[in-house]
């Protein structure tokens, strides 16, 4: 019950959805009798957060379009066994602009943008006697933070998309796409506004809303994508002063018990049976852990031994006992054959996946009450940004600006949590820029695996082709990655959008 109280402000809108939220477009929302006061404004903001729980965004899916928690399958971390969900077919080059995944991902993000635009327009109009200036600024900051998050999803995956910043009538909806720079500039502007408007913390009853730290951290992530490294250094300097810290247990962090950790900078909140998301991304199946997201061997092999050396060089590694003497993040993230994955049933994982490994990180370790493995409990939150990511973003930016001395302490903080050796004790001190770059890229992979960031990383590093080769070399049965140049690095504009809007032009790499 305590958790319900924490989430109640965020979930108020879910029970009201049938009354007004999903009655057609939010842009046509009862303009004459809504948006009159602070309460209305808060409900409107909650409606934007609701979109984050869409299956194709942060809820994840089974037997439908994949969500962001499954996006590691667009690269070399996981195999999407249910290929029709999106990532598997994309990597195997069996998609075209009419593939439903692209349309659903596009539509969900624009649904969030429409709700944000409506909130921004109408909150601005609420008279000052009905809402304080501070509350108005805070709510506008949340709306612009969320709009930036939706546009960031579009900018990274589709690159050039229509930039819509106002409530549109049907007659105004047929717009051309904007350049990636124009979209990027707006994302930066929205996040700067949010960073100046949002509080550092909220009262406990407002658990789940975007903060100043969330805005600064998301802006740092986007600036990293744009390779504006000095901006990343400046932004993360501010985040480091806001009271975040690493959770003491890496494994516990990715359970419901870890949701209130000071490591969580921004999360999409879930509470089973309080919304219509159905299966949440953390579902466990009774016969196999998360059947449609299977860790790939090349990732498993990338976790070092406990002496800090790769398994190809460490005397501690034995092929007969591959999970022993390994970086503890491996055992916290991946099931090996014979690991118990349903403790209530004492059920061992039989290795019955195509990759022989099972997903453990984030996944519930209890059976379903529905008898099919996908039911309650399912209240695990999904972390969009956490403090370890901020530390590693800062380390990467320092490397790329050739400010090398401070990189060691940042990586060492992340390693210390799982008792892995310091950089200086294994790789040495006085390392070159290239050597430190490899260290941080490795650290990002093993620290952030299965958090939906791998495609984001390899794309900005120019390593998508290399990622496809690693996935291919794993020789997973019936999985044949096909690298097609830019077509493997950018999504096409959905064909349904091209057909409906004659002002839209397809991405040149997909024509």
Automatic annotation (TrEMBL):
InterPro entries: SusD-like_N, SusD_RagB_dom, TPR-like_helical_dom_sf. CDD domains: SusD. It comes from the Bacteria. Residues 262-510 form the RagB/SusD domain. It is found in: Cell outer membrane. Residues 93-224 form the SusD-like N-terminal domain. This is RagB/SusD family nutrient uptake outer membrane protein. Belongs to the SusD family. Keywords: Cell outer membrane, Membrane, Signal. It holds the Pfam family SusD_RagB.
